[in-house]
Amino acid sequence: MHAPRSPSRRRVLRQACAGAAALGLSPLAFAAAGAGAGAKTLPGTDIALPTGDVRDFDFFVGHWTFRNRRLKQRWVGSDDWDEFPASLRCESRMGGVVNLDEGAFPTKGWQGMTVRVFNLAEKRWYLYWINSSTGQLFPPVAGGFDGDRGVFYGDDSDEGRPVKVRFLWTRIDADHARWEQAFSRDGKAWETNWTMEHTRVSG
Hints:
single chain, ten-stranded antiparallel beta barrel, 1 helix, 12 strands, 7% helix
């Protein structure tokens, strides 16, 4: 199987920003909950979408390597993980309102980019993921940090079936961070299926 041809960084970023603009950066799919401008819940659940601060991802700016552990088979109670390396570089733009990273997964033959946009009115981050193997802009997850822990929720699909998705970010220290992804079919029971252990590259 040939590795997918990767679009240029400029073109991928342009597509991401266009897609984010088309979605309004605060997709209407996120339902309002109550009268407060910042109060929202994940559709179909009573999960409140966290808010945060425009500086939440400043800690991640720089060059990182990371170890991935991805569950080989979901929904069966498996503890069999695929482990593989990756690296990325993260940048802050527009005074911190935009944060983006581009990563390479050399043993998988693809690249990925995350575009994070902070909605100033809502005080909430929207995170968009793009994989070079498809060029698809995935639906966003939304949320923010409380201290060193960030929580983000959204809608996704798993092999054609709709699921809820949750990202958990942990700022461990200046040189280490952890990310994990979990899926849920009902918004209540969650299965973690992907983790990343990040280490900053010195210099």
